[in-house]
Amino acid sequence: MAVERTLVIIKPDAVKKNAVGDIIRILQENDLKLLAIKMVHLSKEQAKRFYIVHKDRPFYDELTDFMSSGPCVPMVFEGENAISRVREIIGATDPAKAAEGTIRRKYGTDVGRNAVHASDSPESAAYEIPFFFNQLEIHQQ
Ligand code: RTP
Ligand code: MG
């Protein structure tokens, strides 16, 4: 088992649903420590840079329009196997296919508006965490 850090974003749809507090609670109750948090409204260009791995996907334009449509809440969480555990807690990309009890099942609307993002690998986390946070903004707990 390894202690990992992962980048989670509460997406604009879930911010609008007043789900920020509940999503943080769910993650913290799963032994994940909150090390960093802020609220930002990404520009279209910033959203495109964040999701650059998807630049050739058909949903890239729609995804980056949505992610720049309102404020979102990026956070860093730390814990044992945090990357894969957070992905499980969040559930499948399509909220309709997400397991009962997952965050996307509870707060997602459709595959585009699915409430949360989480890093999918150590390589992704290494790109995504410094995208939003510098060293002074990440706090050891
Ligand atoms: P995320 O990166 O946001 O945590 O989501 P994910 O890993 O579960 O899914 P990924 O394949 O990385 O896709 C990134 C986001 O693009 C949107 N998407 N739309 N219309 C579509 O078929 C489609 N497929 C993906 C979703 O919002 C997904 O979260
Ligand atoms: Mg992804």
Keywords:
four-stranded antiparallel beta sheet, alpha+beta, Alpha-Beta Plaits, 4 strands, single chain, 141 residues, globular, binds ribavirin triphosphate, binds magnesium ion
Unreliable runs: none
Inertia-based shape:
globular
Helix percent band: 25-40%
CATH superfamily heading: Nucleoside diphosphate kinase-like domain
User: Averaged pLDDT, please?
Assistant: 98
Spatial separation of the terminal alpha carbons: 19 Å
What is the radius of gyration? 14 Å
CATH topology: Alpha-Beta Plaits
Based on secondary structure, the structural category is alpha+beta
- The number of helical segments is 7
Give the C-level CATH assignment.
Alpha Beta
Distinct compounds present? ribavirin triphosphate, magnesium ion
Strand numbers in spatial order across the main sheet: 2-3-1-4
DSSP strand count: 4
Domain Nucleoside diphosphate kinase-like: 3-140
GO cellular component, one term: cytoplasm
Pfam family, one: NDK
Catalytic activity: a 2'-deoxyribonucleoside 5'-diphosphate + ATP = a 2'-deoxyribonucleoside 5'-triphosphate + ADP; a ribonucleoside 5'-diphosphate + ATP = a ribonucleoside 5'-triphosphate + ADP
